[in-house]
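input
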Amino acid sequence: MLIRLDLNDPRPLHEQVAEAIRRAVAEGSYAPGDRLPPARDVAAALGINANTVLRALRDLRDEGVLEFRRGRGVSVLNRPDPRSVIEEKLRSLLAEAVQYGYRHDDVIELIRELS
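output
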């Protein structure tokens, strides 16, 4: 699982991890029934605390994307709604735009210009 964290992103790390996993599932890197790597392995690869990864996994479980099974680990339950993936990306974009001094209306105008 390829996850990259942006340390300049104002969002908490667990939200970034959850978004990366959600995107991987939505894009088909993981199909329903596939098992995810253990949280400790993901945390070690990212250089973050395992509890941060576990919090992201719990959030995804609460959303109905993942399933926890005792003795079997974490597996994909459902693909997330594509709209929710786009909404998450838009939230991230808007947060980053605000960091650079753009208002939401400015971002909307940029999108209109590009389309």
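quick obs: The mean pLDDT is 89.
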